Amino acid sequence: MVLRPGRVVALLGPNGAGKTTFVRAVATLLRPDAGALEVAGVDALRRPAQVRQIIGLAGQFAAVEPAMTGRENLVMVGRLFGLKGSRAKAAAASVLQRMGLTEDADRLVRGYSGGLRRRLDLGASLVGTPRLLLLDEPTTGLDPGSRIRLWDAIRQLVADGTDVLLTTQYLDEADQLAADIVIIDHGRVVAAGTPAELKALGGDDVIEVHVRDPLALGEVAAVLATVGGEPRTDPATRRAWTAVSDGTRRLMEAMRALDRTGVPIDDIALRHPTLDEVFLTLTGHRADDASVRKEQQS
């Protein structure tokens, strides 16, 4: 497998699928049992020290010192990279501005929100100006607003010339950020391509219905079963959906059949498969399937 530079590449899979193991291998923290691994043309098995000079790593949890300010954290990282005092301060100031942290730079990190800590941790991985940035589930535990702000920061990094390898179990995150996606399951690549190419693997279009009353989902699902494949339902979002071929004709059939039932419908639409549905098709389970994660971690 060869990952192309100049873009965000997302590695998808449930917990335990091998995402973090792969990142640790690229970061030279773990030696592969077999095979070859090159990072920016450098043999990671023979020249791990050279690889460490051209990568940055932000793990699943913010690795920052809460008893120091944001600026002090970044200056310390700069010094660890071998920068002299003035250069370390300049690099820290540049990263703070790049990550939108200048206003909070001189506050103690213990007072930062989770989103600010993640942005600072991401900034710390940039002090050494890496050619490749490894992000291992960077938005885990963040609220929706903080996730979006971190997405914006990652987009800006790529626009400024940093290559990014992102691991995530959030398929919407990969859809938002990645130019290329690799799906793995049980340590093996099951599919790779652009988001559009992977969605095409999902095959048929999808008819999705939002009902007003979740108790009506069963009746709606029975209707959808007459026009497409096995329907699925989600009571929490009051949705029922099914895959169909010849989508436009099947949509009209579904609308007429639902109208005859008299069930109140808030919305009905024909759409392409989501990445989550593609993942289900390829692996037999959802990316956020807790039972799968438990099995893989045991």
TrEMBL record:
GO MF: ATP binding; ATP hydrolysis activity
Organism: Mangrovactinospora gilvigrisea
InterPro entries: AAA+_ATPase, ABC_transporter-like_ATP-bd, ABC_transporter_ATP-binding, P-loop_NTPase
UniProt superkingdom: Bacteria
Record's subcellular location: Cell membrane
Lineage of source species: Bacteria, Bacillati, Actinomycetota, Actinomycetes, Kitasatosporales
Main localisation: membrane
GO cellular component, one term: plasma membrane
Signal peptide: none
UniProt name for this protein: Daunorubicin/doxorubicin resistance ABC transporter ATP-binding protein DrrA
Keyword Transcription regulation appears in the UniProt entry: no
Gene Ontology biological process terms in this record: response to antibiotic
Keywords, in A-Z order: Antibiotic resistance, ATP-binding, Nucleotide-binding, Transport
Limits of the ABC transporter domain: 2-211
Membrane topology (UniProt): Peripheral membrane protein
